[in-house]
Amino acid sequence: MHGERRGISYRKLDHLRICLDSLVRGGCSLLDEVVLPYSPLGAVSPAGVDVSVWLGSRRLEAPVMVTGITGGHEAAEEFNCFLGRLSAEYRIAVGVGSQRAGLEHPELARTYRAVRRCGGSDAVVVANIGVAQLLEKGVGYAEAAVEMVEADALAVHVNPGQEAFQPEGDIIEDAASAIERVVESIDVPVIVKETGHGLDSSTVKRLRGMGVRFLDVSGAGGTSWILVEARRGRGPVAVSGRWLAGLGNPTALAVMEARWWAPDACIIASGGVWSGRDAAAALLLGADMVGVALPVLRAYMAGGGGLVEDYITALIYSVKAAVGLSGARSIEEYWEKRLAVGGTLQRLAEQRGIDFNLYPAVRGWGGRGRCRA
Ligand SMILES: Cc1cc2nc3c(=O)[nH]c(=O)nc-3n(C[C@H](O)[C@H](O)[C@H](O)COP(=O)(O)O)c2cc1C
Asked: Whose CA is nearest to atom 15 of ligand 1?
């Protein structure tokens, strides 16, 4: 038991070390293919732009979520405490990492609880569990994760790409049934997320059919969990992981597919959405919110909380400036702006069955209400 706990904690520390020290970016998000609209005579001052959005019953000042990163080891407690304060101060959402360690070893729960303890009731917190544990342990497991951090939403991660290259990994082949049950019985929004290889249209259609309304596409082009695992491993499987690092749905395409096949869903664009430009591009494509993980971790380790605050401030200012310079006063108006994308993204979108003439109008269906519970 003790050894198993150490196993999970060591694996998490290994992941952190690799994400901090090595190149772990895989593939290409294709967000560079999006042209940001610019209207010299219609421009609105960034200060006058409203980029607030809902997440369930909570209002966020900016459409930003720090997606699940860590928990379950000593170093995580301080980081999650910082995230709690960040959320309360900037009114953005923050997630904890997979709560498996805390649920299976209650003495580690405090490393996750720190997010709520430090952020108080103003923090908007997203709990996190893996679909494999959900399938094995049932809905009670999800409820316990939500309760542990008094969460406002629950993220369930599906990550077969990572599992295929993790020495201790295991691909779950009948994950969907577990998700269906949890959506029916949990009373906070359930976000189904990938971890850097992207949701695709067949997954989105299936999830939407089951009643899942919150999707974090976590596409390819940012942190590649195939590559992280390949860097932990040795031998032919690790070589293969380096070859397949960029496998999956590029983030820009994943956002478009999710929006097209689930027009009323709340879509979080993550996976290499690292700069303010990336964020503005993802929102213009029809995402409701952007998610960031690695840049926050790296900023924290390089310069502490102050550097993360600078990063988040720059990210939010970029979104407000991009929206304002397009001539829009809100994200809703931004979704009405012209959509111009490069040939690669357009061709790929068309290959996936998206009608590019109709797509621009679909971006804003349902408006900001899409993320409201
Ligand atoms: C160090 C680290 C740990 C992560 N741990 C989790 C996790 O426990 N659960 C999860 O759902 N995603 C986890 N992720 C994935 C992120 O939430 C995100 O989906 C992915 O990294 C892509 O975003 P990025 O390109 O901004 O890093 C982790 C990411 C990082 C960098």
From this structure: 195
> Residue 57: what are its φ and ψ, rounded to 5°?
-100, 5
The residue contributing the CA closest to ligand 1 atom 28 is 69
Which domains does the chain carry? 2-12+49-353 (3.20.20.70)
Q: What is the pLDDT of residues 143-179, one digit of tens each?
A: 999 999 999 999 999 999 999 999 878 788 878 888 9
Cα of 293 from ligand 1 centre, angstroms = 6
Distance, in Å, from the CA atom of 326 to the CA atom of 150, rounded to the nearest integer, reads 38
pLDDT band (50, 70, 90) for residue 192: very high
- Write down the pTM of the prediction: 0.96
Q: Of 146, 145, 81, 62, nearest to 119 (Cα)?
A: 81
Ligand 1 neighbour 130 (Cβ under 6 A):
no
Q: How far does the centroid of ligand 1 lie from the alpha carbon of residue 345, in Å?
A: 25
- Shortest-distance Cα residue to atom 2 of ligand 1: 69
Residues 6+ apart with CB under 8 A from 94: 65, 66, 83, 84, 86, 87, 115, 119, 123, 124, 125, 126
- pLDDT tens-place string over residues 42-71: 999 999 999 999 999 999 999 999 999 999
How far is Cα of residue 86 from the mean position of the Cα atoms in its chain? Answer: 17
Query: Is the CB of 272 inside a 6 Å radius of any atom of ligand 1?
Result: yes
Residues 117-126, mean pLDDT to the nearest whole number: 98
Q: What is the mean pLDDT of the chain?
A: 95
What is the Å distance from ligand 1's center to 223 Cα?
7
Q: Is the CB of 189 within 6 Å of ligand 1? A: no
Residue 2: which pLDDT band, with cuts at 50, 70 and 90?
very low
